[in-house]
Amino acid sequence: MKFTDDQIADIGEEIITVLKSVYDPEIPVDIYELGLIYDVQISEDGDVKIIMTLTTPNCPVAESLPQEVKDKVGEVEGVKSVDLELTFEPSWNKDMMSEEAKFELGML
User: Fold this and answer.
1) What Pfam families does UniProt report for this protein, alphabetically (predicted)?
2) Could you give the C-alpha distances from 82 to 14, 17, 20, 28, in angstroms and in order?
3) What are 88-98's pLDDT values in tens digits?
4) Contact call for residues 41 and 49 (beta carbons, < 8 A)
5) What is the pTM of this model?
6) SS3 letters for 71-86?
7) 5-19 vs 64-74: helix axis angle to the nearest 10?
8) Coil, strand or helix: which one is 38?
C-alpha cells in the first residue's frame, strides 16, 4: 500500500511531535527546537530517513540519543522502518536553534 501526500504529511507531523518529546540531556530544550534534526524524509511506503546531529561529537548521549529517536519514530503509526544517519556536517551551532529555544535559554 502506498501512502498519499496527505497521509505522508500526517505521518510527518506525528514524527515532529515525537521528536519534540526527545530532549538533549544537557539543555532543557527538545532536539527539534534545538535544530538537531536536519532532515526527515518519508517514502510512499512508510520508510523514514532522519538526518540528525548532536550538539557536540563527543556528546555523552552519542549512542543513546539516536537510538531513542529511532525507537520513538518507529512507533509512529504508518512508519515501516527508520534509517537514522548521524552527521556532523554542518556542525551544530547555536544559530540553528529556533527562536523559542533561544528564548527558553535566555539568549534573546
Assistant:
1) FeS_assembly_P (PF01883)
2) 14, 16, 17, 26
3) 999 999 999 99
4) yes
5) 0.91
6) HHHHCCCCCCEEEEEE
7) 140
8) strand
